[in-house]
Design brief:
The chain is of the alpha/beta class. It has two domains: 207 residues, no CATH class; 157 residues, GMP Synthetase, Chain A, domain 3, CATH 3.30.300.210. Helix content is 31%, strand content 31%. The strands form two sheets. Strands 1, 2, 3, 4, 5, 6, 7, 8 and 9 form a nine-stranded mixed sheet that branches. A four-stranded mixed sheet has the order 10-11-12-13, with helices on both faces. Helix 8 crosses helix 10. The radius of gyration is 26 Å and the shape is globular.
Length: 401
């Protein structure tokens, strides 16, 4: 019996070889951000933003860091026929094993997006390392410029700054959702558009202001299947959020509405809203009824309206409802007319309601959507008006307000 136990223990040792496939932290190059561009010859340009542990100087040979001797990131680009080939070339320049497990953002350049992302995305969803929760963004220029020229303000790297920007404002689109809308019938993907905005930055009381390029969001990129069709401006992007708030979950959406007094606007913050979409098929005519109920707070007013007067408050709510309707309609009109693509998910609602008709309507849904009549109904309710009931009037002889 003792011999049998000893033999079993010795046999068990064969399966306790330890972490044979482990990777030590000191041997890994952590990818924080990824950029994909298309070269004029059709090859892929892959840009990686790699984290540098503190105390390690930036590498030479075209590296871009955050400052001499104090860099916390290293940006490297290589060209290849495919992303794996470009990554293989990057590996020849980096002394550590490239690891995608901490990737925060994926940025596609405008040219690459216009030519189609289906082949490019294959590596990212086939490989088990890239995170499904990475944010997808579209650059209005080259993606590599965001990493090479961008200067993070409050964060240590551009990728971390963009990640916080997406999370804090709730406007980011995760890679898994972007991919789902690209392949699902009845919907098309959309993603925030990113660009470099030059801002006056002052570091310390004795420093002079410098025009530094800071990564910032500017509108929304609109796709038809895997190809970029164009962009929505910031106002039209608001309309998209109101229609598909569950998709992006914006947290700091503030819009301006006319006040009671002429040229005295009121600032409202949208707290939460519900959007109900009801497509109605009448023979060859498609009608889409949209009902939006929004709850918001009054943040500021230029005029002197007594907002505790229910009649005045009701008028403000009516003006706000009209403003939201205008923003939503602008987004729908542009998607229908100029781009001919449904980025709002109306097709999914249609498919759930008309399952028997979907096999016929699905393959040409974008054409059906482009010709549909849209009926909007918006109701805004002001929940909170702050600590001030009415702005104080200036005494006679004084100017201002």
């Amino acid at each position: 019996m003792k011999k049998l136990i000893i033999c079993l223990l010795l046999f068990a040792l064969l399966f306790t070889g330890g972490c044979w496939d482990s990777k030590e932290p000191g041997s890994i190059a952590h990818v924080l951000g990824c950029g994909v561009d298309k070269a004029p010859d059709g090859n892929v340009i892959l840009t990686l933003e790699l984290a540098i542990p503190s105390g390690i100087s930036p590498l030479s040979g075209g590296a871009v860091g955050s400052g001499a001797g104090t860099s916390t990131f290293y940006v490297v680009s290589e060209k290849g026929r495919t992303i794996p080939e470009a990554q293989s070339k990057i590996s020849e320049r980096v002394s550590r094993t490239i690891f995608w497990g901490h990737n925060l953002v994926i940025i596609f350049g405008k040219t690459a997006a216009e030519q189609g992302l289906r082949e490019t995305l294959n590596f990212l969803y086939r490989n088990f390392e890239p995170r499904e929760a990475s944010w997808v963004l579209i650059s209005k220029g080259e993606a590599r410029e965001i990493f090479e020229k961008g200067r993070p303000v409050l964060e240590k790297t551009n990728s971390q700054a963009i990640d916080k920007l997406m999370s804090a404002n709730g406007i980011g689109v995760e890679f898994v959702l972007f991919l789902r809308d690209m392949y699902r019938s009845g919907s098309n993907p959309a993603a925030p558009s990113i660009t470099l905005v030059k801002k006056d930055m002052v570091a310390g009381a004795q420093s002079r202001a410098l025009q530094e390029p800071v990564p910032g969001i500017e509108g929304l990129a609109v796709f038809k299947s895997d190809r970029l069709k164009g962009f929505l401006n910031p106002e039209e992007t608001y309309g998209f959020h109101f229609l598909r708030g569950v998709y992006t979950k914006p947290k700091r959406l503030v819009f301006i509405t006319p006040g009671i007094e002429e040229k005295k606007e009121i600032s409202l913050q949208a707290l939460r809203w519900t959007t109900r979409v009801d497509p109605v098929q009448e023979e060859n005519n498609l009608k889409i009824f949209i009902e939006i109920n929004l709850l918001g707070n009054l943040l500021a007013q230029k005029g002197h309206e007594d907002i505790y007067d229910m009649k005045i408050l009701k008028k403000i709510e009516e003006n706000a409802s009209g403003e939201v309707e205008k923003l939503v309609r602008a987004a729908v009109v542009k998607a229908q007319g100029e781009y001919g693509t449904d980025i709002f998910g109306f097709g999914e609602t249609y498919r759930n309601k008309y399952r028997k008709m979907w096999p016929k309507a699905g393959p040409r849904w974008d054409e059906e959507f482009a010709g549909a009549k849209i009926y909007l109904s918006v109701k805004v309710t002001v929940r909170n008006t702050g600590l001030e009931t009415a702005r104080p009037e200036y005494e006679k002889g004084k100017t201002g307000g």
